[in-house]
Amino acid sequence: xxxxxxxxxxxxxxxxxxxxxxxxxxxxxxxxxxxxxxxxxxxxxxxxxxxxxxxxxxxxxxxxxxxxxxxxxxxxxxxxxxxxxxxxxxxxxxxxxxxxxxxxxxxxxxxxxxxxxxxxxxxxxxxxxxxxxxxxxxxxxxxxxxxxxxxxxxxxxxxxxxxxxxxxxxxxxxxxxxxxxxxxxxxxxxxxxxxxxxxxxxxxxxxxxxxxxxxxxxxxxxxxxxxxxxxxxxxxxxxxxxxxxxxxxxxxxxxxxxxxxxxxxxxxxxxxxxxxxxxxxxxxxxxxxxxxxxxxxxxxxxxxxxxxxxxxxxxxxxxxxxxxxxxxxxxxxxxxxxxxxxxxxxxxxxxxxxxxxxxxxxxxxxxxxxxxxxxxxxxxxxxxxxxxxxxxxxxxxxxxxxxxxxxxxxxxxxxxxxxxxxxxxxxxxxxxxxxxxxxxxxxxxxxxxxxxxxxxxxxxxxxxxxxxx
Length: 469
Ligand SMILES: Cc1cc2nc3c(=O)[nH]c(=O)nc-3n(C[C@H](O)[C@H](O)[C@H](O)COP(=O)(O)OP(=O)(O)OC[C@H]3O[C@@H](n4cnc5c(N)ncnc54)[C@H](O)[C@@H]3O)c2cc1C
Description:
alpha/beta, 12 helices, five-stranded parallel β-sheet, binds flavin-adenine dinucleotide, 3 domains, Enolase-like, domain 1, globular
């Protein structure tokens, strides 16, 4: 039988490859990765830039030896440039030139790439953060040249030599962060740790808009308290400078900077298959509940693929880590003969801004809920994270949205300083099982003073929402 071929050697790709080899050790599995890094955590890169995570290798999970022990034929620096679903071949460009690889089953696990729509985005000292090489370049720029060595990044032999250019430069004093989504917010904290003057520019009138209004306001307050200059409702028109970036030109005037991080979203990487399989409205690959594309024996998983939204039942594109790992693993099992659904997405996400934690899941904004055919009712409730008499209790704001007609919970967000983010998992679980607000209100959640008040913050909000319904 022709091999299981995987394009992309990270979360989705290696999860699939590993699962298939576990279930069917005799099947040949070949993974093509265009870069040098494999099995790495994008999610930890802001904390590597910050200096909280010391070395790049700490952000990797499987070593070359472990991948080999699993029996996976991994080819780094091999880019899949084309796929023929008629011939069942992948055209691969590697260090020794181009060749055709036949497949029995194929998985597209090519992830996403940072969007770079800003004029001046190609100036020196302007970065996006996507992958370990970009994280290495930013950290190299922040280090004092006298202290910088490639080895200090802890990347083994995988760090791109280009990083030396950045390590030799004078570290910046003022940095612009363009985009107030989760990467922008995390990077404000990272740059602040290096004592930079940080300016955050956000075109919409709220930070983290997908978390709902009250979360954005709290994050804005926290960033401002920490010394970040937050420019809300401010569109960056261009970055300008002579060689390196010197100025951010915005709808509200110009600000002098000596570095910029552009974090304005990602786009799915579908290049090798874009003319071979159906794409969804988002531009990511359309798949069924087993991750199968419109082409026979071709699957897609992770940031390059859509998934079914558990609340709307429609296809949605939510490029996040668990979705990728889970879908990859499920596809590995399916290819081995054990049909396993990839699972739905609720858009559950958590992020922190300094000490403030935020979580969101499902449909948080009423407009979005109306578009999906619901009649949304929303409550926002301020509660405490622990019993009032127990040290460390912090204000915790819960927002819940439900459908008036059915009483079904549609989504929610939580913000606060004391383990607020992980509380969103209760709401996510309720969404997955299609619970009504009434049912959520009666959930038997844990209580002891160090962890929660008697009525957990989610239960308090459900009680108030039930009253309103
Ligand atoms: C800065 C940052 C922070 C994040 N933080 C979080 C977080 O806190 N929580 C969370 O849930 N998610 C987070 N994410 C998102 C999460 O990292 C992704 O959802 C996840 O990595 C997706 O896995 P993937 O395997 O689909 O894609 P990727 O991890 O992007 O891997 C795709 C791989 O395919 C390779 N590739 C692409 N095209 C080709 C080709 N043609 N041939 C060969 N190889 C190719 C790429 O080089 C890449 O290595 C973050 C992302 C970023 C950028």
